[in-house]
Specification:
5-stranded mixed β-barrel, two-stranded antiparallel ribbon, 7 helices, 12 strands, 29% helix, binds 1-O-phosphono-alpha-D-ribofuranose, binds uracil, transferase, uridine phosphorylase activity, Nucleoside_phosphorylase_d
Amino acid sequence: MASILPASNRPMRPDKNAYEGKRSVYVKNPYLDAMDEDILYHLDLGTKTHNLPAMFGDVKFVCVGGSPNRMKAFAQFMHKELQLEGDGEDIEDICAGTDRYCMFKTGPVLSISHGMGIPSISIMLHELIKLLHHARCCDVTIIRIGTSGGIGIAPGSVVITDTAVDSFFKPRFEQIVLDNVVTRSTELDKELAADLLSCSREIPNFPTLIGHTMCTYDFYEGQGRLDGALCSFSQEKKLDYLRRAHKAGVRNIEMESTVFAAMCGLCGLRAAVVCVTLLDRLESDQINLSHDVLVEYQQRPQLLISNFIKKQLGLCSQM
Ligand SMILES: O=P(O)(O)O[C@H]1O[C@H](CO)[C@@H](O)[C@H]1O
Ligand SMILES: O=c1cc[nH]c(=O)[nH]1
């Protein structure tokens, strides 16, 4: 397997301490500057049709997650938490002209849906990162707030990812570029993860841990489930695989973290992945939580991130 990390693909970490000084959002594409216009097709935005610096120049926090409703609810929640004018209920979808993704802005917080899986989030990230670049944003923190399957931990636990790993438990994301395999690092910002963990400690009854997150290309066979339309392995093989994953430090499984970590790292974004676990995969495959429990679990990463953002903005007394 080719393992290529050319100089132009190495992470750009311009500042020693990410919390000090200005940190720009980088695009790593020599062709972009020469383009007369950049149409962000899947976001229904563009450099000629929209004044991106005016619309987005003040963005400091970007939160992404699979579901449009979750990301709208998060934007409305943040609106209230930041005590912005109005009740936020009528918040507008900036990407209403497309039904691929939805995007909401409340103060310095942007909330965007990315759909399910690596190809879907990858397209959104290309256009989001270009948007942040065109808008001349700096010091942006990006956080994926998602759901996942836990391994050996109680459902409802929140996992803050230190490193995203692939299905072989390796900290890498393999992107096919033309007919080459380009391997990119999936390290996330350790200082940010530690800050999020300490923030979680201030919320009562809030089980949180730091661990590796495994990112797969599929929800069923790809995550070792026995309940898909296809299954070509035994219960014993499934448990052996999940136990090996646990031994390698994996505490949860989802479907976007490797490409998220790789792209954000390369483009100078301080990034974190915070996912609640919906079940313990050593116990079951089916998600049979009641609607209310599911909603409450999905709110956990939102609550943590809202507290974190408020602290970063100096709106909380504790930090
Ligand atoms: O909760 P979200 O953000 O959708 O993410 C997780 O849920 C989906 C599968 O149900 C996958 O996209 C997985 O990564
Ligand atoms: O088991 C799970 C639950 C949520 N999301 C996943 O990708 N896997």
